[in-house]
Every structure is written in C-alpha cells, then in structure tokens.
Design a protein that fits this description.
- The chain folds into 3 domains: about 50 residues; about 170 residues, no CATH class; about 140 residues, L,D-transpeptidase catalytic domain-like.
- It contains 11 helices and 13 strands.
- The strands form 3 sheets. Strands 5-4-3-13-7-10-11-12-6 form a 9-stranded mixed β-sheet, with helices on both faces.
- Strand 10 and strand 11 form a beta hairpin.
- Helix 9 packs across helix 10.
Length: about 375
C-alpha cells in the first residue's frame, strides 16, 4: 500500500470535508433524476399500452366477425399478428367458449391449437361442420350462448392483498417440500388465474395499474371466478358419466349418460419419460387442495430423492388445486402450476388441465365414471 504524507492526508481530509455535502447533494439530485426517469419511462410504456387499439372493454365487448371475408384467411391473418398484441375478437371468442365449457385454456387473445381445438369441439356439438376457424355460423352460435359482456370490471379487495403469497417457488421438487404452502407468488398471478387469463393479457388490459393495491379497478374476463377450498354434495348437475382422453389431439372431453358432450378441456397428456396409459379406467374419487407425494419409483428426471416426500397444497403444487383419482395406480386428472403451458408441454404421465378446468370437471364427475384413453 502506498504511503501518504501527513500534510497530504490533511489536505485530503479537508477536501473531503468541504466536498462531502456537495457530493451528497449531487448524489441526491442524481437519484432524484433516476427516479424521475424511471417514472417517466413507466408512464410512457403505460401510455403506449393504453393506446393499443381495440383492448378497451367497449371494443372487446363489441368485437364482431367480418362476415364478408374468408374465415380461413382471417384466421391466418390473426396467427400472423404480433404475439405481443392480443386480438380483441379472439379475447371475445375465448371468453364465450370458456363460459360454454369449451375451454380454450388460458385466455390470452391469441390464436393457437388450444383455441382451434375448442372451436372445433364446439362446432361439432352445435351440429355444425368441424372447423378450426371462426366461421360466421360458429360465431353466431357462440354469441347465442350468452348476451352478457365478455369483459368486465373487478375491484381488488383488502382480502386479495392478504394472499397469502410465497416469495418464490423453488424449481426442484425436493426444495418445494420445505415450503409450508405452494401459494401464488404475487397478486398478478393470483388474479390472472382467478379469471382464467394469461398474466400478459391481464397486464395488457390494465396498463399502468398496480395489482398489489386494494381499490384498483381492473378489466378482467367475465368468467366464473376460480374458487378455492373443499366442496360438498357432489357431483353437481350436469353429471359427467364418461371421460374421453385423446392423446393425439391433447384434450379431455366429458359426456353425460346419454353420450352428450358436456365439456371440452385442452390437456397435457403423458411424456416419453412416463407415457399416459392405454385402455380404460374409472374415477375413484376427487381431492380438492391436495398434497403431492413423490415416490422414488417414478424416477422423474432431475429428482434425486431416494425416499418419499410430500409437497404441501396450493395452486403451485405439482398437481395444482384438484386431483381426480383414477383406478390405475399413481395416475389421475389434475390441475397445474403452469396453466399457460397446458396443451403445449408434456406432463409426468398424468392428465394435466388448468386449475379452473380441473375444478370444473371435479365438480361434475361421478364416482365410477368411465375414463377412456384414445391412442395416438
């Protein structure tokens, strides 16, 4: 270390003493500028988002299909749009499908396989030709299912802000077992799932609005809000007597005793590591807010545990908020911590639905209902 003379040292101390307040004031000024700059940047982003055409409540509720155009061309045009710009008509169609129990998965305002599958199933159920495009006939039938607005307002409550929330969900199952509950990580995640939406769409519909402040008025999808907790007096009507799991089209269909299609859900079904079973099974029972127990015999990739362990309940539990137990050991139909990935990724062998779809099916399925696995 280099030596400094006493005289030089005194000079440095005097200089420091004189400049300290000046430097502090400059630092304070710079910090203020940084905060102002960040605020202006955030406001600019919010203003830009708020100017996105067609994402207001009135525009989405009034969105209509151009019946003079080619439905297939319109569908191709929608798929070619910028992924960062949800389409108002697509939001409307997804909400109408969801309310009719033909789930498009997470409502995101974008075209994709989940939406196309739901449109096709709905068309067939209405006696129309099978189609993955939004035809005038399909759109008319959809609008006839409900006259209510497809997006509405929701005011964040004090109870919403109480959560509870967890700071972070560890990626490894062994570490997840250490958490007291597998809750949501923040209000935005909770609110998006409550209204069956992707988090990006929730943000796009509410530019610049805080999701962590009670009293904030949000625009949300007008769907039955996802509820929590156990349920009595099941099954509800209409009762599901048969479930069809299609491994090729990656979906689950629910039928009543007469064979009428009651509901359609996109699904993630099995994997190379643990493929979904063949043949048929029966529903043994339903568990709401289930724990998850890992057995080393599953031999999941990335899990090194040599003994069993359990993960506490919550929406971010590996099986989500619902477990529908099947007569095939270790297999079930269940929810997921990643609703936006349903139908797009593999599962650990079981049949994975969004939490709201899994709960909807659980509320209506009869004990002993037949589950048929259609081959790929």
């Amino acid at each position: 270390m280099r030596r400094v003379s006493v005289r030089a040292g005194l000079a440095v101390l005097i200089l420091a003493g004189l400049s300290g307040p000046v430097l502090a004031e400059k630092a304070k000024s710079q910090e203020s500028k940084n905060q102002e700059s960040k605020a202006q940047e955030s406001k600019a982003q919010a203003d830009k988002a708020s100017e996105a055409p067609g994402l207001g409540r009135d525009a989405i509720n009034a969105a209509a299909l151009d019946k003079g155009g080619d439905p297939k061309a319109a569908s191709r045009k929608a798929r070619a749009k910028d992924d960062d710009k949800p389409d108002p008509l697509t939001v409307k169609v997804q909400v109408l499908l969801d309310r009719a129990r033909f789930s498009p998965g997470a409502i995101d305002g974008r075209d994709g396989e989940n939406l196309q599958g739901a449109l096709s199933a709905f068309a067939v159920a209405q006696g129309l030709p099978e189609t993955k495009s939004l035809t005038p006939d399909v759109f008319d039938k959809l609008q006839a299912t409900s006259p209510d607005p497809v997006v509405t307002e929701y005011t964040i409550t004090e109870d919403d802000m109480k959560g509870p929330f967890v700071e972070k969900i560890p990626p490894k199952m062994e570490e997840q077992a250490d958490l007291p509950a597998m809750d949501y990580t923040n209000p935005r995640e909770m609110l998006a799932e409550r209204f069956h939406m992707s988090r990006d769409l929730l943000s796009a519909l509410n530019p610049g609005k805080p999701f962590d402040k009670a009293g904030t008025v949000l625009t949300v999808a007008a769907v039955p809000a996802l509820e929590r907790g156990k349920v009595k007096d099941l099954p509800r009507s209409p009762k599901v007597a048969r479930i069809e799991v299609d491994k090729a089209s990656r979906d689950v269909r629910a039928f009543d005793k007469s064979g009428k299609l009651l509901a359609y859900y996109p699904a993630s079904i099995g994997s190379e590591e643990k493929p979904a079973p063949d043949g048929s099974a029966k529903v043994k029972g339903v568990a709401f807010e289930p724990s998850y127990t890992y057995n080393p015999k599953y031999k999941f990739s990335g899990v090194k545990a040599k003994s069993k362990f359990s993960i506490h309940p919550g929406p971010n539990n590996p099986v989500g908020l619902v477990w529908i137990d099947l007569s095939i050991p270790s297999y079930g139909i269940h929810g997921t911590p990643d609703p936006e990935k349903v139908g797009k990724t593999e599962s650990h062998g079981c049949i994975r639905l969004t939490n709201w779809d899994a709960r909807d099916l659980a509320l209506h399925v009869e004990r002993g209902a037949k589950v048929e696995f259609k081959p790929e």
